[in-house]
Amino acid sequence: MKSLLLEGKLLAKKFENEFRTRVHKVAEKGMTPSLATILVGDDPASATYVKMKQAACQRVGLNSEKVELPVRTTTNQLLGRIEELNDNEKVKGILLQHPVPSGIDERVCFDAINAAKDVDGVTTLGFGRMSMGVPAYGSATPMGIMRIIRHYGINCEGKHAVVVGRSPILGKPMSMMLLAANATVTICHSKTQRLSDIIKTADIVVGAVGRPEYIRADWIKDDAVVIDAGYHPGGVGDIQLEPLKNRVFAYTPVPGGVGPMTINTLIEQTIQSAEK
Ligand code: NAP
After folding, report:
1. Candidates 172, 188, 189, 216: which one to mutate for ligand 1, based on the most atoms within 8 Å of Cβ?
2. Mean pLDDT of the region 217-225
3. The model scores a pTM over 0.90
4. I need a labelling partner for 103 at 20 to 30 A (CA). Which of 7, 12, 186, 229 fits?
5. pLDDT tier at 184 (50, 70, 90 boundaries)?
6. Substitution site in 9, 175, 190, 261 for ligand 1 pocket (most atoms within 8 Å of beta carbon)
């Protein structure tokens, strides 16, 4: 069986064409909306992700307000900058790049972002609202995954979805979104026992572990939908994808699957905020 390729990169490109028109319409009313990006410290991977997000803003006509802070920034100093951005009318969305240096209380800083500008979906309030089915911006990576799933017409209802990882920005919100789509969800983490046996029963597998090819191909059943959120040096994800390519029902490639749709979701939610 030839597996269906879930092409996040192509999809993101298609959506960007629509986004340009939407941004243009908002800008015609007098103000080009802006996404504020906050980068704290000098982690090269984080710097690259922020640059990619700024480049996406540019492609669709959004302004990006760049805030770069040194590694020694304190929680209070960062909170001060977030407050300024909350009060800045031109700024329609705020992205605080994760992870921040270990000396900063990341949760306190995420939660200081005004819910109306939480376009990356990182606040406790946003998570709670989303989980309860109240309108909220979704956490960008899982929301991007749900947009891929919906676009390719994959029905989650009644399916057993196994999410490997329970981080606040990925595994947890992913699980809640799949639950809202009527999947039966199992959440696995570092203390889970018999992980391979659980994954063998999965109709939908989401790899969000943060370890290269940790989820082995022979744990995954033939007709599964395989979503790999990981990205590691050498161009591999959290799932051993190569042997699955002609065996599973569908899979997201690495690179070119989840990553582009994460950025695309951040951009879409910034536009939604501006449209409001
Ligand atoms: P994270 O915060 O490090 O969380 C990793 C999760 O995996 C934790 O819940 C951890 O469990 C679990 N885990 C670790 N070892 C495990 C094991 N042996 N068995 C089962 N579960 C295990 O990572 P994250 O931020 O969620 O990111 C996960 C992956 O997604 C990474 O590869 C990252 O690069 C990728 N990512 C991609 C994007 C994108 O835009 N494409 C965005 C964000 C992240 P505990 O909770 O018990 O510690």
Report:
1. 189
2. 97
3. yes
4. 229
5. very high
6. 190
Q: CA distances (Å), 95 to each of 8, 24, 153, 273, in order?
A: 21, 22, 30, 13
In the chain, where are the structural domains located?
A: 30-114, 140-259
pLDDT digits (tens, 9 = 90+) for 56-81: 999 999 999 999 999 999 999 999 99
pLDDT, tens digit (0-9, with 9 covering 90-100), for 80-97: 999 999 999 999 999 999
Ligand 1 center–CA 229 separation, angstroms: 9
Question: Which residues on neighbouring strands pair with residue 63, listed in sequence order?
Answer: 34
What's the gap in Å between 144 CA and the centre of ligand 1? 16
Helix (H, G, I), strand (E, B) or coil at 268: helix
Identify the CATH class of 30-114.
Answer: alpha beta
Structure token digits, residue 54: 């700024």
- Write the pLDDT tens digit of every residue in 113-165: 999 999 999 999 999 999 999 999 999 999 999 999 999 999 999 999 999 99
One fold for 30-114 and 140-259 = yes
Pocket of ligand 1 (CB under 6 A): 141, 164-167, 169-171, 188-192, 195, 208-211, 229-231, 238, 258-259, 262
Domain 140-259 sits in CATH 3.40.830.10: no
C-alpha 200, offset from chain centre: 25
d(CA 148, CA 169): 18
CB 169 within 8 A of CB 98: yes
Main-chain dihedrals φ then ψ at residue 41, nearest 5 degrees: 90, -170
